[in-house]
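In pairs, describe these two lines:
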Amino acid sequence: MAGLRLAGDDAFRVIADLMSGSGLRNGEALAVNTNNIVADDVYRITEQVSQATGQYAPLKHRKAGEYRDTPLPARVKQTIEWYADTYGTVDGYLLRHPRDLSKPMLAHHLQNQWKRLKPDGTFEIPEGMVLYGFRHFFASNCLAHNIPITDVAEWMGHRSIDVTFKTYRHLMPGSISRAAQVLNLDLAA
């Protein structure tokens, strides 16, 4: 995953880091804003770039003004700060339309890069992986390290924990064997 996040341009790197490190959706990553770093290790997602309108819009499953907080690993924070220092911001927004800085960057910018990267062959991209795979990496990584699924569901903005559970249950460490061991010890006592 580390090499793949560097495969595109600098904007692609920001988005790949936000999706794989903080669990943002594509449109949420496009709306990245330095003002949303609310602590050294917390990023507040307040809006997204709507694929339908190309404008900023409320988050999926949320009303205007609602937000959610996600973990902000040091690497992701450094990428945001590096991009802001290198390219500047417009009202804190990092990713702007290449021909009109008053508008947000659109999703097709990412999709076009992804389409070019896949056949390029420079980076090994797992069969069937889509750009959204960076977000799946975030969830998989959290769950594989025993982060509670309730927290992961909240960070990802899933409407219900059932969505997270149905999608990622196979990645959670099995508990049936552990339960059998614990019960065996207590039964032997």
